[in-house]
Amino acid sequence: MRDFDSRPLPLDQADGLRRLFARNRVKMIPVVSNPHVAFGGVMLERLCAGFTELGLQVLVVDASERASAPSSWR
Fold this sequence. Notes:
Elements: H1 15-21, H2 40-53
């Protein structure tokens, strides 16, 4: 039986922070709209549903030419 942690010693002070936030990585998946392809929104909706089922958080930013103008949050 061991009385000590088997992990190597940290190399610097930020080691604990890196381990703490290592799981919270942001992944970006750009999806480009094509006005000549039907049901592009359905594909995007299904992608989001699949990621949500995997327990991932999803944020969709619509920057298409048909998107509404951005508004400021107050």
